[in-house]
Amino acid sequence: MRKAIVFGAAALAIVGAGAASFAEPVNDELVIDGETKIITRAKAPEGSPFEEVTSGWLYRTKETRALEADSFENPGMLYVERGEEIWNMAAGAAGKSCAECHGDASESMKGVGAHYPKWNAEAGKPFNLELQINACREANMKAEPYKFDAPDQKALVTYIKNQSLGTPVAIDLDAGEMRAWWEKGKEAYYTRMGQLNLSCASCHEQNNGKYIRADHLSQGNTNGFPTYRLKQANMVSLHNRFRGCIRDTRAAQPKAFSDVLMALEVYVAWRGTGLSVETPAVRQ
Ligand code: HEC
Ligand code: HEC
Question: Which GO terms describe its cellular component (predicted)?
């Protein structure tokens, strides 16, 4: 309770008087293992409120940035390894593994994660990787869909996204009804909510670069998800992060994969167009 009040005051302080400190994101280059160059600054897509989109990595401390630059040090890599195990493991009544149909993920899944969420004509809605994996489990493996944030779900999504490490985020808004979902996501992004009466934009757009307690506010891009959060010592999925940000405004949290969070995922992924996939990113 006490923590909540302190956070509330801090949130109001950044959005209110403007007394909070400000710092530009750092000028630093991210090259993972000295090999894979990561695009952490990109020209914003047309219609963006920013001129340049910036990765959340540029807002983290030197130590946190270093963890992400070295895959032996990055704790998120354990989830990539676990994801690879699951990929090769038979499950469900059909007795099939992902690998049996999709082969070597480093080939079949290369670049795939950079283009999610993606229109799914059969479902008539955008799919993120979690929903696509569940669809494959149900239809192709005769297995139970994963429950939201099941450890195996997070590991598999992390593994698949990691096959796109370095690939720029680009989602296809021309497919199906993606533009209507983008619009719905945009509306949600700018809608003030909760007792603190804040929108996503209040923090990540108007106060981008300011500090909220010890947190340096980034643009809130999605290119690093699932991310390894040091605070939680765990992988955090995107919808978990969305729900956490919404909780911090004191609003009721929508369910994971609900239409509003799927619409937000479409819109917020688009805001980060051109940034490399960083999964598993390391954040505070
Ligand atoms: C029996 C074969 C089969 C199995 C087993 C299977 N899939 Fe699939 N998967 C498909 C087919 C066919 C498609 C393309 C059509 C569709 O969307 O259903 C697909 C599509 C996908 C896609 C979307 C690719 C893209 O380019 O957007 C992903 C991601 C995926 N599967 C992941 C998995 C994972 C992870 C598993 C294991 C948990 C798995 N699949 C198990 C057959 C399979
Ligand atoms: C009260 C301020 C606040 C509000 C409102 C808020 N966030 Fe956040 N958000 C944060 C903070 C603090 C962080 C962690 C530091 C950072 O990356 O900005 C964060 C992180 C994120 C991240 C992870 C960025 C990364 O690089 O790992 C995403 C994505 C995100 N927010 C999306 C949203 C969305 C979508 C909304 C609206 C539903 C929202 N946020 C509302 C404060 C807020």
Answer: cytochrome complex; periplasmic space
Q: What is the domain partition of the chain in residue ranges?
A: 2-74+177-283, 77-162
Q: Is the pTM of this model over 0.90?
A: yes
**Residue appearing with tokens 């949290």:** 253
For ligand 1, mutation pick of 97, 102, 108, 142 (most atoms within 8 Å of CB): 102
Best CATH choice for the domain 2-74+177-283 from the list 3.40.190.10, 3.90.950.20, 1.10.760.10, 1.10.10.10: 1.10.760.10
For residue 219, give Cα distances in angstroms to 15, 93, 143, 209: 15, 44, 38, 8
Residue 101 labeled ligand binder: yes
CA of 243 relative to ligand 2 center, distance in Å:
10
Instruction: Determine if ligand 1 sits within 6 Å of the CB of residue 133.
Output: yes
Q: What's the gap in Å between 204 CA and the centre of ligand 2?
A: 6
Under a CB-based contact definition with an 8 Å cutoff, are residues 271 and 219 in contact? yes
Active site residues: 245
Name the nearest CA neighbour of 203 among 265, 281, 65, 194.
194
List the chain pLDDT tens, one digit each, 284 residues.
334 334 555 555 555 444 568 999 999 999 999 999 999 999 999 999 999 999 999 999 999 999 999 999 999 999 999 999 999 999 999 999 999 999 999 999 999 999 999 999 999 999 999 999 999 999 999 999 999 999 999 999 999 999 999 999 999 999 999 999 999 999 999 999 999 999 999 999 999 999 998 899 999 999 999 999 999 999 999 999 999 999 999 999 999 999 999 999 999 999 999 999 999 999 99
* C-alpha span between 87 and 85 (Å, rounded): 5
**Residue nearest (by alpha carbon) to ligand 1 atom 27:** 112
- Domain 77-162 superfamily per CATH: Cytochrome c-like domain (1.10.760.10)
Q: Is 239 annotated as a binding residue?
A: no
